[in-house]
What does this fold into?
Amino acid sequence: MAFKLGIIGLGKIAQDQHLPVVQKNKDFELAAVVSSRGGYGDVPAFRTPAELFRSGLKLDAVALCMPPEPRFAIARDALDAGLHVLMEKPPTPTVGELNAIAEHAKKTHRVLFTTWHSQYNAAVDEAKRLLAGKRVTRLHVSWKEDVRHWHPGQDWIWEPGGFGVFDPGINAFSIVTKILPQPIFVKSAMLETPRNKATPIGAQITFKPSWEGPAELTADLDWRQTGEQSWNIDVETADGLKLELRNGGTELFLGGIAVKSAPMAEYGAIYVHFAELLTSGRSHVDGAPLQLVSDCFMMGRRTETEAFL
It folds into this structure.
């Protein structure tokens, strides 16, 4: 019997990823959508989450695909309505809200799943395996893309709680926090912020290790790159391992030689895992990427750059 799923928020990520993946997954049945922009085919549609929760429609779970700011309240109401919850990344705008909703899921005995889609690549899993037990001496993240291409007309990303360049940057952080054998902390950050926006368009970050010994740990995030996009993570270890993740974590190189490459199928893997969680009744909540972003804002120095128009 397929799990009856409602998707709340029919923006770009839902249209590009969630809807087509759910339709292909036999473990799920798309049973409802919520959007102020209209419906989706002949699927029952509601204008607000409250309308859906009051409708009495039979559902097992909901996927939250709206911008992060309202997610805590919607997730709380869904859990209180007896529904399991999948949260698109980033799950909430603050660490405090994430911790609170995780506790609420425990109290209501519902499954909560915080998705970090970039973690769901075979090359990322292999990188984690190769780095296990090693001491990292160098890490560099280069995550550069064109905001006009990926977020056209999305003004919310420039508002407080919208993350700015950390909206894609948190994808890199989600890979880093998964593959490194020990945690890293934010030492300093330079946040390049357009004079007419609240969130940064670029960031240069220096991390510090939780382990003993020297380590050069840096990240360069930029939302102004046109042409070829850069989603790269380089790691070196004390015993000479040189590991490179390319193309958002879909390709792995060792010493410059390709060892693993697979087409991007992140969201398919997310829903496979969600079905496993629903079957077992387990939650999967990972707050480490969000904590790094929060710490970048805490430790960051803001520098003003030209207006973004």
